[in-house]
Amino acid sequence: MRNKVLNVFSIIILFVVIIGQLAVAANFTGYNEDEVTKVYDKKGEYIFSIAMGVTTGDRYISQDNKEYKVVKVNNNKAIAEYEGDIELKAELTVNVNNLPFMAVENKKTVGIYHTHNDESYKPGSVSIKGKGDIHDVGRQLAKSLKEKGIETIYSDNLHLPHDGAAYSRSRATALSIAKNRPDIILDLHRDAIPDVSEYTTNINGKNVTQVRLVVGRQNPNRKVNDQFARRLKAISDKVTPGLIKDIFYGKGEYNQSIFPNSVLMEFGTYGNRQRQAIDAANLLASPISYLLYGGKGNKPLGSDVEQRAAFRTVLWIIGIFIAGLFAYLYFIEGSLEGVKKRIKRFFGRELTDKGDNK
Q1: Residue 102 located in a structural domain
Q2: Structurally, how many domains does the chain consist of?
Q3: Does one domain contain both 208 and 195?
Q4: Pairing state of beta strands 151-154 and 109-113?
Q5: Could you identify which of 7, 181, 255, 265 might form a hypothetical disulfide with 174, taking C-beta atoms 3.0 to 4.6 angstroms apart as the criterion?
Q6: What mean pLDDT comes out for the span 313-323?
């Protein structure tokens, strides 16, 4: 009798587990290659697209730091309410080059894996069995981080097929990485929207894919993950403007409950070239390094952009000064020849004065 009760109980437990797995699959908040949700504001203006489940309450921060909240979803169309501009610089210190590290400097370890291993880019198979192009993107990011003195725990474990239970299968990989206590864990993907232009930008003369950050709303680490995503975008906006496309806060937890400072990253979409995603991974190593460890091995944050801007400003001021001086001399002398003579007399006097002082 007791054995019968135990057997029945075991069957019930197994039934509950199966139903639970089916529920996960039914409420899959990952990718669906055949369905793309387009999101508009209340005025009907287009905001963005995503090949992930979009639900009421999801949030979005655009590339130009405008924040939206999804208020209505109807099939493959969603309406989002504009909530205002946000100042991501507030996530940084006043002097960004003295930004406190988010990690222990002497550790320097980043975990990388792929929930959807088959994701690839054109030309070639969009999705393939086994290890797709996204693995090359992960390996490039690991290589670029290593060049900055950062070790990586890179996993190429397979979690196929590409279905609703993929996150359940990849959870074991995320847990295995988390046991080594890295500073961050990154799950690298590529999106499946058809419009390549939404994910393509030019940085330093190269066309590269932009990177979307995805934070799960249903996990206890969401506040920490949110802060990490915002600070990473703020720093990347200074180091490599345009590289971080946006931040999407979706229903689900994407295994981010396992470890704080974990985030999902979308490197472009299937229409992009693999080389563009690899180049993006190489660029992303700098803002990651700076955020976690103060950017040892990097140039000072924003130095290239800010120094070029400062140099142009100085040239502009000098140009205005010279033009004003010329106008003043022309007003006094009344002719171009008179200006030339005055300049010659000035420099001739300067040379004479210097000769007398020797």
Answers
A1: yes
A2: 3
A3: yes
A4: parallel
A5: 255
A6: 56
* Residue 355 pLDDT exceeds 90: no
Question: Is the domain of 294 the same as that of 311?
Answer: no
Burial class (CB in 10 A: 0-12, 13-18, 19+), 321: exposed
Buried b (16+ CB within 10 A) or exposed e, 190-204: bbbbeebebbbbeee
Neighbours of 297 (CB within 10 A): 14
- Alpha-carbon gap, residue 64 to 84, rounded angstroms: 11
Beta carbons within 8 Å of 215's beta carbon, 6+ residues apart: 222, 225, 226, 229, 247, 248, 249, 250, 256, 263, 264
In a domain, 14, yes or no: yes
Q: 246 and 154: one domain?
A: yes
CB atoms within 10 A of CB 235: 25
Cα 178 to chain centroid distance, Å, stands at 22
Query: Do residue 151 and residue 212 come from a single domain?
Result: yes
Q: How confident is residue 327, by pLDDT bands cut at 50, 70 and 90? A: confident
Under 8 Å between Cβ of 40 and 34: no
* Dist CA 283 CA 267 (whole Å): 12
Structure tokens at 154: 């890179």
pTM confidence score: 0.74
pLDDT exceeds cutoff 50 at 325: yes
Closest-CA residue to 69 (of 34, 41, 38): 41
Between these two residues, 298 and 324, which has the higher pLDDT value? 324
Per-residue pLDDT reduced to its tens digit, 147-159: 999 999 999 999 9
Return the amino acid letter for 68.
Answer: Y
- CA dist., res. 306 & res. 312, Å (int): 10
